Amino acid sequence: xxxxxxxxxxxxxxxxxxxxxxxxxxxxxxxxxxxxxxxxxxxxxxxxxxxxxxxxxxxxxxxxxxxxxxxxxxxxxxxxxxxxxxxxxxxxxxxxxxxxxxxxxxxxxxxxxxxxxxxxxxxxxxxxxxxxxxxxxxxxxxxxxxxxxxxxxxxxxxxxxxxxxxxxxxxxxxxxxxxxxxxxxxxxxxxxxxxxxxxxxxxxxxxxxxxxxxxxxxxxxxxxxxxxxxxxxxxxxxxxxxxxxxxxxxxxxxxxxxxxxxxxxxxxxxxxxxxxxxxxxxxxxxxxxxxxxxxxxxxxxxxxxxxxxxxxxxxxxx
Length: 318
Description:
With 318 residues, the protein is of the alpha+beta class. It has helices at residues 4-8, 16-30, 41-55, 60-65, 125-129, 154-159, 232-237, 296-308, and strands at 87-89, 103-105, 146-152, 161-166, 172-177, 186-189, 205-211, 217-220, 223-230, 239-243, 250-254, 263-266, 282-288.
């Protein structure tokens, strides 16, 4: 273990506040969660913790300065020293070279602090990494949850799929989208959020789902709406007409004399059941479309209808 003053980059005359500031700065810089590509990050982080255990403790620091303990906080052996109050004989006393006696110094009572009863550097992690619980030399705290938005296509919302998400942390993840997901629903990615200080559990990522607009289909709650164009003769005569859905084309029966705006409901063709929410429907809204080019025969037919069989669809409006 190197000299703790060297490890923290402070002088032997540094104040307690200067030592604390130096430790905080290095803890942020060298924390393993911030240096995952460095195989020695854990060792570096342990070294600054050990150094601060010595220099950050008002009793251990003077003991180190007087040479009573080493850089790891272990008592040094003293030749010719006899145990008194605050010291106890080690298992190998009297067995040292030249008849020297070795003692394990017990830091307790007024003379110092036993391991675990002195300064606990984990107390500072609440300030450095946003809080934690004290006790037992640990500051285990759950990392922060991160909120993000993921935009999925309407077909993926209906059938399920996988999308690549760019996270606020800069990472890219492939996220599975369950079939039938709603706009505004959240997907929780456990352990993918903010790192936890001092070995705690990482936070989660909460992805709020947005569903991208579709050129044909519009989402209304869990129902999907489609405008279906019909020719004039299909609307008048009726019959079977092919209509698209997000899971493939289907045939629908159009009754004779179907007007524009009439809505036909295809059960279960909207968002599928998900999380106890029932499946939605496909709402097919009829839209009558005339030929794009002028047609003299059609015009003559309409004039004959106008003259011989007029009708008034706007009755009651004016």
